[in-house]
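Sequence in, structure out. First:
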Amino acid sequence: MSDVLILPGLFGSGEGHWQQHWLQDQPGSRCVAQDDWDHPDLDNWLRRLEGALEEAGEAYLVAHSLGCLLAARLAGRSAARRVKGALLVAPCDLLATENLHPGHISFGGMPTASLPFPSIVVGSMNDAYMTVDRLTLFGRLWKAETRNIGLAGHINVASGFGRWRTGYRLLEALKTRAGDGRRIVSTQPAYAM
């Protein structure tokens, strides 16, 4: 069984967040942490992710918000070969995030390179951190399957996402498809929580 590396967003995934439940419910999952979740350091976090991938040998990534951008930064890096697949939930748009939380992040520009591993990007129609048009754009740029789950906000505790069982099913679908080397292709939106 491959490890699952959890990549939280800005401010971390606090108590009750679906990623916290994931760490309890999913054997072999662990968080790739920051020293300061309020002011994440991209270079340091990327080194930690690469080290965690090296230690695991290979792993799936389960990212939320800013963590999705960290995962996307692996494109073109040697550590990407260790990623079996990535579930990227509610990626944030850096400009929107900087406007909502001035002075908290310095991540440069949005990553735009296609991801060299199978990926599912999950977003919603009313996420303050990324519009649905930008979600579609980055899903296409990253060569990921994009799932719009409707009016789900930022897919966090504030929008009602505690233990998110659909996320577990999405990862299982990703594992199944990654296992036989097929690129994930779907034209069907998923509207379930």
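Second:
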Amino acid sequence: MIDFFLSLDPVIQAGIATMFTWGMTALGAAVVFATKEFNQKLMDSMLGFAGGVMIAASFWSLLSPALEMAEAGPTPAWVPAAVGFALGGIFLWGIDKVIPHLHPTSPVEDAEGIRHDKKKRSTLLVFAITLHNIPEGLAVGVAFGALAADSTTASITGAVILAIGMGIQNVPEGLAVAMPLRRDGMTRRRSFMYGQFSGMIELFAGVIGALAVAYIDPILPYALSFAAGAMIFVVTEEVIPGSQEEGNKDLAS
């Protein structure tokens, strides 16, 4: 099974990997069928763990290969890494500021200054998670797409670890969508469907990311670094704060 996966085109590998991350989102959302409330300490622990995995993967699977690839280029190796990383963070920051949305733990009447009813809150909540799943899917896709360039620095192991880290992080994300929707009066089935739908975007983003770099070798260092910058923004703006908002700071850290 492993040999078969390794023999596939990197774009197909990216598709399979992001189907896994989507499935993990669905797994988290499926908890809505089994319980009314979820153990907050366990959820915060999972978020803290996922944040650590994502930070490590951002360097070892994205930034480190980008630095090595850039050594053969005309500019100092740190330039593509720094530029790509900064652009990735700024891009996500800009989206976060321009498009009004809710974070999973936002109060019912706080959508970054926008008053709304439960229906609008539900829509914004799903949109928030979906929005932040785009760079996660792109990061996985770029990591696998880099393999198509026959680069010795692009590691299949690193790409797989990155996908696993994303998957772990997606379990509480799916839950964070489904449970509030259920509390707002939505049926368990619909809460699950919206929860897993928030992870579906990763499949499309992953394939696009892989296609974008698989055949355009010069942009690889920038693309990998861009994905790393976007990832770190998600971790520092969403994952880490989300893991500590319920008071389990030491446990999550």
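Remark: Residues 40-70 form the longest helix (31 residues).
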